[in-house]
Amino acid sequence: MQKFYAVKNGRQTGIFMTWDECKDKVTGYKGAVFKSFSNIDDAKKFLGCDDFSDDMENQKDKEEQMYHTKEEDIFKDLRKDDMIAYIDGSYEDSSKYFSYAGVMFYDNVSEDFAFASNDQDLISMRNVAGEVKASMYVIEKAVEYNLSKVIIYYDYTGIENWAVGNWKTNNNLTKLYRKFCEDMSQKIKIEFVKVKSHTNIKYNEYVDKLAKKAIQDKINLL
Fold first, then answer.
1. Fold for the domain defined by 4-57
2. Where are the chain's structural domains?
3. Element (H or E) spanning 59, and its range?
4. What is the pTM of this model?
5. Euclidean distance between CA atoms 194 and 54, whole angstroms
6. How far apart (Å, rounded) are the C-alpha atoms in residues 92 and 109?
7. Which pLDDT tens digit goes with each residue over 201-216?
8. Where is the RNase H type-1 domain (predicted)?
9. How far apart are CA 98 and CA 215, in angstroms?
10. Which of 74, 91, 137, 203 could form a disulfide bond with 126, CB atoms 3.0-4.6 angstroms apart?
């Protein structure tokens, strides 16, 4: 059943068609007010507005332009001492495992990674724990390989916002991540690029599958 997510108070207000879109607008935002509805009329009433259709179409057009940069264009200006990485995290509730995965491109090399964990200190963050661990992994590798810049393509907004200090760090992992990025930025230039999840972006879909497979492989060994 289609749900409509109405955000009354958040980084961006309005009606969103998926939880991923809504989550980006409210997670970590102090005083966020939002609610899901089974029909758009109730969502409009919650926001106290009768017509969001034009705003939704305009927003959709902007997102299409922002998130669907042709992937072949991404590599055009990649220098020998730069890295481009796509990352993702996943979580499987029945096994209580999270995972992190990615693909790194540098110096004419393509390198995959995928790991699964049931670390009890991190499991409460579910897939977000994996997203953060993946970001830290590629930054560490870029420094290890003596590169000058790493560009991280991600689909969970916290990856950039925690790293640059836009979001409050309210647990051990996000505090560690923030400090890690501060320290590593003294050694390498770190850039972040937001991509929209589950929209057939080639490498984003690829790392999503890697992350899910890492959990399944771990379960198969149990």
1. Ribonuclease HI; Chain A (3.40.970)
2. 4-57, 65-221
3. helix 53-67
4. 0.70
5. 24
6. 31
7. 789 999 999 999 999 9
8. 79-216
9. 7
10. 91
